[in-house]
């Protein structure tokens, strides 16, 4: 419910403002908003910050103009006098304020407190509540220089707070006074005590941010204010959490409550991030993969592939089912069977469908590479001899999509993302390099995501991992295709140069022969 100010408060502020304009003693006023429930509602954070800022600016040391008529000894005495701390303390301010209330009972109905700035050189005192009707005081001594005095009622404190109930049970006097030293969050302490007077805490919390409710939750827990803790949890369960940072704050706060054994139900809040579903993670992930692969809408399919791959990359294998790779390979086999069936139709092949299946295979290979489990796929692809033989019979406009899968494998090997055996690397080059040469021109011009430089580097590095004889055979075959095809063939000149140096400039056999006696060779030089 929206707080409001009594008319007497506004009149008081006007009086003090007028007095300041007339040059009288400066007074610090703190208006108190009163709820219909009969208590205060905590001022906004800006009010606390403005009060502290004004206090600091008022008490900054002012440099007086230099005088020439004073003696050095007198100046030293004045400096020492300035350095001495003021004898006025928080307790003396509170005591003097209580005496003023007793001598002027009519003034206790005002809902603002006027504190002479000159009496508070280092502290700012703020009072909340109605001293005339209260039978207890709670004094909060904040770390930021605040002294906050709350005029409260023992019954309200005892009914709502186990902390206050315990402390008040130790007090024998009719009028109790409790002090909380080094209060880290005085503002929220005031807010939380004020909530003890509210009939509908949920309505009050609805106007707050998630961060502020978490602060209230923390103080409510410290005070043993169980109903407030539960109201905060109900709020957190219903309100949206904006961003990962806010979500982490909420979850850490809730988990801390569970760890410390607070007797409240935290499960509803945690259900947002922790599932008790009986479905294993593997089945859920399999369903996601299947939905993405079978999507008929190209744009949505492409976007979801990017999102799923990004999320799997962020997890880096953590909290992902160990047998998830089996699901991926099952999907790969399904795509391969579809491609093989389409290739067998030769002239009647569906170019669009082949493109979709080739894109699916490339994406699944990306997923396996991220999970460091792509070696088996390279073996499977290298052994697709029937698919490679059918390749020449299929129109170029349909078949070139399949060479994207071959290109991705070479890029992965060149980057070290997968480490297939020597026999697999050789079989992969023997089976699929020539079909790639024939499709290369179409790949360059018909595939937007194709990176020719990256593919050429991957092919060259893959070739250079083979024995020198195999390097020579494959590169000589490439040389014939390159000289006839020009830009329509991958440029493997770097790999060719490395092979050339290995073979002719300083062959390993020569280095081995000259290195039999390394000491002698060094001495001759």
Write the layout of secondary structure elements.
Blueprint: H1 7-21, E1 27-31, E2 33-34, E3 40-41, H2 45-58, H3 72-83, H4 90-103, E4 112-116, E5 124-129, E6 136-142, E7 146-152, H5 154-160, H6 162-169, E8 176-183, H7 186-195, H8 201-205, H9 210-223, H10 226-238, H11 243-259, H12 267-270, H13 281-293, H14 298-315, H15 324-343, H16 351-370, H17 375-382, H18 385-391, H19 396-399, H20 403-415, H21 422-446, H22 452-464, H23 468-485, H24 493-505, H25 508-514, H26 518-524
Parallel strand pairs: 5-7, 6-8
Antiparallel strand pairs: 1-4, 2-3, 6-7
Helix pairs in contact: 5-6, 7-9, 9-10, 9-11, 13-15, 14-16, 15-16, 16-20, 17-21, 20-21, 20-22, 21-23, 22-24, 23-24
What does this protein look like?
The chain is an alpha/beta fold. The protein is 61% helix and 8% strand. The protein has helices spanning 7-21, 45-58, 72-83, 90-103, 154-160, 162-169, 186-195, 201-205, 210-223, 226-238, 243-259, 267-270, 281-293, 298-315, 324-343, 351-370, 375-382, 385-391, 396-399, 403-415, 422-446, 452-464, 468-485, 493-505, 508-514, 518-524; strands at 27-31, 33-34, 40-41, 112-116, 124-129, 136-142, 146-152, 176-183. The strands form 3 sheets. It has a 4-stranded mixed β-sheet with strand order 5-7-6-8, with helices on both faces. β2 and β3 (40-41) form a beta hairpin. α7 (186-195) crosses α9 (210-223), α14 (298-315) runs parallel beside α16 and α16 (351-370) packs parallel to α20 (403-415). The radius of gyration is 40 Å and the shape is elongated.
């Amino acid at each position: 419910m929206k707080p409001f100010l009594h008319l007497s408060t506004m009149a008081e502020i006007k009086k003090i403002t007028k007095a300041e304009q007339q040059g009288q003693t400066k007074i610090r006023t703190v208006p108190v908003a009163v709820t219909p429930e009969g208590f205060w509602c905590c001022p906004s954070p800006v009010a606390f910050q403005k009060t502290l800022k004004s206090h600091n600016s008022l008490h900054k040391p002012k440099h007086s103009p230099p005088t020439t008529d004073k003696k050095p000894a007198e100046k030293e005495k004045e400096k020492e006098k300035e350095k001495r701390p003021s004898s006025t303390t928080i307790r003396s301010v509170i005591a003097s304020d209580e005496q003023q209330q007793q001598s002027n009972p009519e003034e206790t109905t005002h809902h603002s407190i006027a504190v002479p700035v000159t009496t508070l050189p280092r502290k700012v005192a703020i009072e909340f509540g109605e001293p005339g009707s209260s039978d207890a005081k709670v004094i909060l001594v904040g770390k930021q220089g605040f002294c906050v005095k709350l005029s409260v009622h023992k019954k309200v404190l005892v009914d709502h707070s186990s902390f206050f109930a315990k402390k008040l049970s130790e007090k024998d006097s009719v009028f109790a006074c409790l002090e909380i030293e080094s209060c880290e969050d005085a503002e929220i302490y005031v807010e939380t005590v004020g909530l003890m007077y509210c009939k509908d805490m949920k309505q009050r919390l609805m106007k707050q941010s998630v961060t502020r409710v978490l602060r209230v939750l923390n103080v409510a827990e410290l005070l043993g204010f169980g109903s407030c803790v539960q109201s905060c949890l109900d709020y957190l369960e219903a309100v949206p959490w904006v961003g990962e940072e806010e979500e982490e704050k909420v979850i850490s706060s809730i988990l801390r409550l569970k760890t410390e054994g607070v007797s409240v139900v935290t499960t509803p809040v945690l259900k947002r991030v922790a599932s008790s579903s009986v479905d294993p993670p593997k089945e859920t992930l399999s369903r996601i993969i299947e939905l993405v692969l079978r999507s008929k809408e190209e744009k949505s399919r492409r976007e979801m592939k990017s999102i799923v791959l990004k999320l799997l990359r962020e997890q880096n294998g953590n909290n992902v089912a160990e047998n998830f790779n089996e699901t991926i390979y099952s999907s790969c086999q399904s795509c391969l069977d579809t491609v093989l069936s389409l290739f067998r139709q030769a002239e009647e092949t569906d170019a669009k469908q082949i493109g979709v299946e080739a894109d699916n295979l490339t994406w699944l290979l990306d997923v396996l590479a991220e999970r460091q489990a792509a070696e088996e796929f390279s073996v499977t692809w290298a052994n697709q001899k029937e698919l490679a033989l059918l390749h020449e019979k299929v129109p170029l406009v349909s078949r070139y999509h399949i060479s994207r899968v071959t290109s991705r494998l070479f890029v992965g090997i060149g980057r070290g993302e997968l480490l297939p055996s020597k026999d697999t690397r050789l079989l992969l080059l023997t089976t699929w390099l020539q079909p790639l040469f024939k499709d290369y021109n179409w790949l360059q011009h018909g595939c937007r995501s194709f990176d020719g430089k990256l593919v050429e580097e991957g092919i060259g590095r893959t070739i250079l991992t083979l024995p020198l004889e195999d390097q020579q055979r494959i590169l000589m075959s490439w040389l014939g295709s390159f000289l006839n095809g020009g830009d329509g063939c991958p440029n493997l000149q770097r790999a060719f140069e490395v092979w050339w140096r290995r073979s002719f400039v300083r062959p390993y056999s020569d280095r081995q022969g000259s290195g039999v006696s390394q000491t002698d060779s060094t001495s001759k030089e």
